[in-house]
Every structure is written in structure tokens, then in C-alpha cells.
Design brief:
By secondary structure, this protein is mostly beta strands.
């Protein structure tokens, strides 16, 4: 046995028990690398050594102007101020945290035009820059734009009194027969119904995406609405209500009724529609399961308004109905002069509606208290109106059978102005986008009118044909898409 190895030293030297601890220099030389390794692997050092990739992301990824927006970034210098812009418009600043990340809660600028936008972040000290994308969309997903049926597009920021007369054709697409429903717009697609089919077109190019033929060649679509990735279709002759896949046009579900269906309106996860057997229906918008059905005294043909848990609808029995949206229970009714073919508009706790029929008899425009049905004011018209009112800027706009477009004070019913338009404008419903008006008559004529209440546009459309806004016109068998001046036509600016 080697005693030198046992003693850890040379023969004759002092025993060296625990040699590793006997030499401080050697002990330190072994410890220092370990300490260095620990420092390099510490969380703070790892964060500094492995900087996150530079990036900016906006959430949600699309929406109309004024959409609430969360902008998040990473990879900037810790503690630096990051300036944020939306296609060049200043959004604000955020300070990067210790990892170089930040979050800013902001909104899409009200003036942002429809189309793709760039959300950019730039570090003020590092000069580093990154960007994300956001798509500005101003979809018009159903008749009268919103559940209150006000006919107001609050997001329109391109068409004005200055340029509305310069609208130019962007594209036109042929359809098989006379258009009878829509168009409505969602996710850069235009949906329109005819006497036998429903079409989807690319809103930018006009390219046809799909065609869905209804149950028979004589079926006529009467209304469209888009929500939850579905296109809801009412039609007359097959006595059915459809939900189609908005991407493919395939039928997701359909339900049968005892009469032709009309006037779809989707609010949340409930779809409301009428049928010609004088019923108002509420169904699950995702499955088609019936929630409730209410028998009215006569048929209703125009889209209902749904506001604050109440459904408002006019019917041919010369009544306006208010029903509980959850149960269908009738809350109140109001008797009118003649039949109500107009869609009620509910704004500021007041129900505005016109009454009239095809006989040319005198009619009236009503303002009713939404809570009780009590009358606030009534204005008689020389002839009745099937026109649905638009409400904006303290005015009520509605057309009548005597060829006039009227503007009434929303609070008092006082006539602000009336303008002769001519033709069957009692079958047309105005829509407001911004105080100037574009009116459509006999398929060709457009008129511009001022309200004296600021800048804006109103479109008068034929309810029996395609709905359209300042950017769209319709002719029999042809969908025409007009370009907004002076910018490229955006994805979804329709009425």
C-alpha cells in the first residue's frame, strides 16, 4: 500500500488531512467559477442576456373607429418611453417595464378610415421600432344598421357634404333576378338576396364568393342579417327562416313557419323575425331553437327594434307593439291611424314610427314613450308612409306618399323642413351617415340635401329593393358598388 497516497503528502512531511480545505487560494479558485455560473444563470441576468424579440400587437385585431384597443409591446429597453401611433395618428406613450414590455389601453381614432392600419411603437431612447396591424371595419350587418333601427351609421368618416357628389363606380356584379334583400356587410363581404338566391361578394373587388339557392326557384328573400359568422335569411314562399355559413353559404340550420318570414334582427344570441301568419318569433341565433312565439293580430313586415330588453314592432292591424324580449309578453300597444309598415326607431327612450298603406290614405308620424306607449307627439301626413324613420342630430327623417322627405324636431314634432323628391319615396327609408343627404329615386336619381345640423349624409333607399348607403346603388339584376371619393372604397361602408 502506498502510504504517500494515504497521507496525501511526501514521506516525512506532516500529515495533510482534508487537503482541499488546507489551501485557501486553491479553495477560492474552485469556488469562483461556481459563483460566476450562478450569476449568469440568475433570473435577472437571464432576462438581460436573452432580450425578448421586438414586437407590437393590437387587440382586438379589427373593429370600427372608436373601438377600445389594448396595445402590447416587448423587446424595448427597460424603463424607456415608447411612443405609439395608429397609421401616423398619435395614440399616446407607454413606459417599458423591467423586461422591456408595455401595455397601453387606448381607442381607435374616430377619423380612422376603413381598411388596414398600422399600429407602431418607437422607443424614444433606443430608437427601436416595431408595428402590428389592425383592420378598421364599419360593417352594416342588418337593416337599419343597429338594434335600435335608428338608421344612423356613427362611424362614417369618409363621405361628406363636400365629396358626396363625386361617388364613382368601383364594381358591379350581376345577380340572377331582381334584388329583394340587403345588401348587408360584414368582414369584407357583401351579402344580397334576390327572388331565388342569396349571394356573397368580396366587398373590395366584387368577386363572387358563393351563391346559395333557396328552397325553390320562386322563393324570394325578404331580409338579411349577419352575426356570429352566420347570414340569417327570411323568405316568403318556402315559409322558412335560414341561417347560412357566412364563409361558404351552406345551410347551418333552418326552421319552418306557417307563413313567409320577414324582417330578421339579431341581438346578442337571439334572432327575431316575423312571419306572414301574424307571428313574431324569437329563436336561438346559434341553434335555431325556438325561445318564444307570439301571435299578433295581423302580420308585421318590417324589422323590429330591440332596445333595453324590449322588442318594438309595427303591424297591419294599425298597432305598434312593445314586447318583453325575454318572454314575448306584450307590454303595451298603441293604436295608429292606418297600418304600420314602418320599422320603429327607438332613440333616447322614444319610439318613432310612421303609419301608412298602399291606398294613398292620410297617415301620420308618431313619437311614443318607449316605457308606456304614451304619445309624445303626432304629425299627420297628406299620404301615409311605409318609410322607416332615421333619427340623428335631434331630427327625425322620414318620407311620405306625397313625394316628400320630411325632417321633424325629435323632441316636439315641429317640421324643420320638407323637400319634394318625387316618386314612390314612401317605400324608401332614409339612413344617416355624418347631415347632407343622398336620396335614391326611380333607380337613377340622387339628390343632396342639407339639414343645417352639421356635416353628414342621408341615404333614401327603396325597401322593396336593395338597401344601400352613400357607397352603393342597386339596379334590377345588377349590384352596383360606388367608390367613395377621394379614397379607395373600404371594405364595409353600406346601409
Amino acid at each position: 500500500m502506498n502510504c504517500r497516497r494515504l497521507n496525501g503528502g511526501v514521506k516525512g512531511s506532516a500529515p495533510q488531512v482534508g487537503r482541499a480545505r488546507g489551501n485557501p487560494v486553491r479553495r477560492l479558485s474552485r469556488v469562483v467559477p461556481v459563483i460566476t455560473l450562478l450569476i449568469l444563470l440568475s433570473p435577472g441576468a437571464a432576462a438581460r442576456a436573452d432580450v425578448s424579440p421586438l414586437g407590437v400587437r393590437a387587440s382586438p385585431r379589427s373593429g370600427p373607429p372608436t373601438t377600445a384597443l389594448d396595445v402590447r409591446g416587448r423587446g424595448f429597453s427597460p424603463g424607456e418611453t415608447v411612443g405609439l401611433t395608429f397609421s401616423g395618428q398619435i395614440l399616446g406613450t407607454a413606459v417599458a417595464d423591467g423586461t422591456g414590455g408595455f401595455m397601453l389601453a387606448t381607442t381607435v381614432p374616430a377619423s380612422a378610415p376603413p381598411g388596414p392600419a398600422v399600429v407602431e411603437g418607437t422607443g424614444e431612447s433606443s430608437g427601436r421600432s416595431a408595428h402590428g396591424t389592425f383592420t378598421v371595419r364599419t360593417d352594416w350587418p342588418s337593416s337599419r344598421f343597429s338594434p335600435d333601427n335608428a338608421g344612423l351609421n356613427p362611424y362614417e368618416n369618409q363621405v361628406s357634404a363636400v365629396n358626396v357628389g363625386n361617388l364613382a363606380l368601383a364594381w358591379a356584379a350581376a345577380v340572377d333576378t331582381y334584388p329583394t334583400a340587403g345588401p348587408v356587410v360584414a368582414d369584407n363581404a357583401v351579402f344580397v338576396g334576390t327572388q331565388s338566391a342569396v349571394y356573397a361578394f368580396n366587398a373590395t373587388t366584387g368577386a363572387e364568393i358563393w351563391t346559395h339557392h333557396l328552397g325553390s326557384l320562386t322563393s324570394t328573400s325578404t331580409g338579411l342579417a349577419v352575426a356570429h359568422g352566420l347570414v340569417y335569411v327570411s323568405e316568403v314562399l318556402d315559409h322558412r327562416f335560414y341561417a347560412l355559413d357566412a364563409r361558404t353559404g351552406s345551410t347551418v340550420w333552418s326552421i319552418a313557419t306557417l307563413g313567409g318570414t320577414t324582417c330578421p334582427k339579431v341581438v346578442g344570441k337571439v334572432a327575431y323575425f316575423c312571419s306572414n301568419d301574424a307571428k313574431l318569433h324569437a329563436v336561438n341565433a346559434l341553434t335555431g331553437d325556438v325561445i318564444w312565439t307570439v301571435q299578433l293580430r295581423d302580420a308585421a313586415f318590417s324589422p323590429p327594434a330591440v332596445v333595453d330588453g324590449v322588442v318594438y314592432v309595427g303591424a297591419d292591424d294599425r298597432r305598434v307593439y312593445a314586447l318583453d324580449a325575454a318572454t314575448g309578453a306584450i307590454l303595451w300597444t298603441h293604436q295608429t291611424v292606418v297600418a304600420v309598415g314602418s320599422s320603429p326607431a327607438v332613440v333616447g327612450g322614444i319610439v318613432y314610427v310612421g303609419s301608412g298603406d298602399y291606398s294613398g290614405s292620410p297617415g301620420a308620424v308618431y313619437a311614443l314613450r318607449a316605457a308606456t306607449g304614451g304619445i309624445l307627439w303626432k304629425v299627420r301626413t297628406v299620404q301615409g308612409s311605409l318609410s322607416s324613420p332615421a333619427v340623428a342630430r335631434g331630427l327625425v327623417f322620414i318620407a311620405s306618399g306625397d313625394g316628400l322627405l320630411h325632417a321633424y324636431d325629435a323632441a316636439t314634432g315641429a317640421t324643420r323642413w320638407s323637400t319634394a323628391v318625387g316618386g314612390d319615396v314612401d317605400l324608401a327609408s332614409p339612413s344617416v351617415a355624418n347631415g347632407d343627404r343622398v336620396l335614391r329615386r326611380s333607380g337613377r336619381q340622387r339628390l343632396r340635401l342639407r339639414t343645417g345640423h352639421g356635416e353628414g349624409s342621408v341615404v333614401l333607399r327603396d325597401r322593396r329593393a336593395l338597401q344601400h348607403r352613400p357607397s352603393h346603388l342597386r339596379r334590377c339584376g345588377l349590384l352596383r358598388f360606388l367608390r367613395r371619393p377621394p379614397v379607395r372604397l373600404p371594405a364595409a361602408q353600406l346601409t
